[in-house]
Amino acid sequence: MPAFPKKLLWVLLALAFLVPLLHPLFPDVVSGYRLFLVSTMIIAAIAVLGLNLLTGFNGQISLGHGAFYAVGAYTAAVLMDHLNMPYWATLPCAAVVCFIVGYLFGLPALKLEGHYLALATFALALAVPQILKYKWLEGMTGGVQGIVLNKPEVPFGLPLSEDQWLYYYCLIVMVVLYWAAANMLNSRSGRAMMAIRDQYMAADTMGIDTALYKTVTFGISAAYTGIAGALSASAIAFVAPDSFNIFLSIKFLIGLVVGGVGSLAGSVAGGIFYVLVDNSAQALSLFVRNDLGLPFDLSAYTVFGVLLIALMYLMPMGIVGGVYLAWRKLRGVRG
Amino acid sequence: MKTTRRNFVGGVSTVAMLSASGVALAQKKYSDGATDKEIKIGNTNPYSGPASSYGVIGKCIEAYWKSVNDRGGINGRMVKFVTLDDGYSPPKTVELVRQLVEQEKVLAMFQTLGTPTNTAIHKYMNQKKVPQLFVATGASKWGKPKEFPWTMGFQPDYHTEAVIYAKHILANHKDAKIGVLMQNDDYGKDYWEGFKEGLGKDIGKVVKHVTYETTDPTVDSQIIQLKDSGANVFFNISIPKFAAQAIRKAADLGWKPVHYLNNVSSSVASTLKPAGLENSQGILTALYLMDPTDKQWNNNADMKTWSAWMDKWMPGANKSDGSYVYAYAVSYLMEQTLKKCGDDLTRENLMRQAANHQKLRVPLLLPGITINTSPTDFYPVQSVQLASFKGETWNLFGDIMSAEST
What we know:
The complex is a heterodimer. By secondary structure, chain A is an all-alpha fold.
């Protein structure tokens, strides 16, 4: 997968920071709800980024990243609720907790490859919501009732709305994490990670401590997704076991494949795609039924599925791969 | 205007109020979502995901508003009902409700379904001062006008119902040894808390308390434990699938306690028939809605109207599903509330009218049960009537009972 052109990255970043300030000019376009929606996209992007580090760059499949997302969210929620910790301080805590959980899960996972690992992680995703409801943990997690939280308050008396601040908060976290991931991948460790993905035996023979790299990657990946979970706890201001069902893990995987496996920019595209299409699928199915008056009662999931299949046919390498190929074709580059 | 309103709060009948409000509020006032032509109402329902069996409620409500518009709308305004699928996932509910409130600009949210999902938007709705009316959950936390003046429940809450069972047990079974089966979640706990409160100092009469998870295959082992505890009264807090298992297992074991079954599982078609009607004789429950599968209502006027309505507006739907009765009744209440607002379709007035129902008769509620709300009472239906199962139907007995929930 190609690297993202730097210039474009800066332009996008500048745009991302400036757009919310246009609110006074276009109150309906840059509305609080839209900013909130973009914030959820950013959160999804971070979670997909975490999964990409594991699956895209290290070749380990996970169907259970929803579990780490849940652990991150609950870590943040419990710290805020029981210890009155400020919301921003919960992010590193969630990262550490999820790193440990991910690392520990990575140890037995060393013996599992491919499909077997997928199944083990799948089981983890199924188990976590049940564990959160468990009687002994109930005092902490609030059981099925979940925990109601407060929304992040705007700091330093900045003249921003709650939604604007949430947006900037998520954006800053994503930029930092993206930068860290890009640097890591561009280092010796990153190359080792990818070597393991590409040719496990060769990497082992070359002296890479594959067991260590695989478990640590699992931990880092879990930490990224956990941070996303902690952000979502702040953004939604509520956590409950029902928020972390198995669809969440599937959603991350869809985001990953659609955005582009093994591409950092693809992770962001995937996160954005998922939230966007998930929303428009429902609008589209309503539109077909109510406005066009067609006699199909298409569920939103049907529309979503059709869109997904179409996309996979048109861009088998994900959005970023597809755009890159189209760009090359346009410029007449071959090969 | 103010004096008029004060006058009719003290007024005698609802009918008089209905006609008076039209006169008193001659001036047209609108919040977001209401115009001369349209009233926009938002809703979220789980059409997909683990709780999608509740999706029929949303579909039925949608059909109800279509039939209202077909009749000419509410005071000449068409109702636009926007219902979205949240898949029973609280983060999704937050996102969709924000979309409905901020982009679609609905006047109010109505019948948002689920306890975790409503909890997730509870604070938001009250901060935004948008009505969250007649939510579809029986938890007891939706009637707190002081902290949450923009949120109101509908059905008798689980807590209240359990208090009523407890009082009935204390009054009728002096040497009660009570066994409790409970679903281990917020719904089960709400009942359990109410039950404990109702028993008060007699809590020691509970000799055994067992729980199950919705993921358990059966509750056989729990029933054996209850039987072995020597309990002679059984309070059954379970959803239809498990309630039916419990009834059947108790019969298999030859355990014959006085059996109190929670209202959640009172459907003849989905609980008692699968459990075996012969095993279900003498079971007690508390009802507030008519059960469409209960033959005693076959000639009831409300039931006939509903049945005809279902044939016209929900063709092909399974009429033995009590969800449709529920959806019809609650939609009727919403329609009446909107009607009462007259031309003052502001969010403030909508809440004022919702909290201002006196003895409103809603079709399909049991005879004698009416809707009563006030600025301090945000629990519309608070009465139930006990019934025992005999032959193929529920036999209502005793008075309509109410308990004030706190």
